[in-house]
Amino acid sequence: MAGPFDDEHVVPSRRRAGSARRALLALEIVVVFIALPGLYRLGWIPLPLIPAILALAAVAAALLLTDPRFDRRRLGLRPRAGREWPRIVVFFLISAGLGAIAVALITPDRLLSFVRERPGLWLMVMALYPIFSVYPQEIVFRGLFFHRYRPLFPRPWALIGVSALVFGWVHIVMGNGLAIVLSALGGVLFGLTYFRTRSLLTVAAEHALYGCFIFTVGLGPYFYLGPPSAPRQPPGQAAVGFEPTNDGFAIRSLSPLGYAAGMSGDATATPAGGQADRPDAGPGGAQTPMLPASSPR
Fold this sequence. Notes:
Elements: H1 7-41, H2 49-65, H3 85-106, H4 113-117, H5 119-148, H6 156-170, H7 177-197, H8 200-217, E1 239-244, E2 249-254, E3 259-262, E4 269-271, E5 290-291
Antiparallel strand pairs: 1-2, 2-3, 2-5, 3-4
Helix pairs in contact: 1-6, 2-5, 3-8, 5-6, 5-8, 6-7, 7-8
């Protein structure tokens, strides 16, 4: 005798629950990975970029670590990762060579400009960028995305492709198309590596290779503050970065108190609400001291 919990009652209920969960996951992708970066770009989310990345990574890590279905070994190295390193290194060397040639031909003055002009800051970026930017990004865009949203994309290439598109789109916060395109292409590589190794540490190392190369070769300005046409960060927002201009790189720092100061050696500070007495003062008195030897735009 069939009871109320017979398969004919349970299966449709499970299907409805599964459909509802997939709809919520799809909505979550739209809100978190599409809408929020757009709002951040418009200045509606008053957070510095690195703290925003770390906060998102903390939420992602909490979701993963509290999910009993998640294999925590994915957060580190996995035995199968070693077999992927020859492919990772060879492809990186080819990509880096082509990238360096492109920079040398298109904008030669920018080639290695960061290393030549700010070697100390370059070393600091090389040391801190993988820790405070790369690995947190990988927790979100590979670890969480591949685990949480796999029910929406059962085919591996669909999962890798959508994660790459999302990874490219979130770089809208940089304010330039180059960051979006290169990040989407990188997202394909990183997604493939994570899918094959199941190792966040391995894919973070690959991500760090490409990221450190971009900063080193001279394309770093496109991956931090964006081009000069991008809107300034909101007052009171702490940020430090490079900004390509017609005459060189403007290196500026915005403190949480709304002061802007240059980083060119004899840095001075001007209240963001006042007007600087210098011709290179930006909106609101934000000074942007220039460094030479950058290519004109």
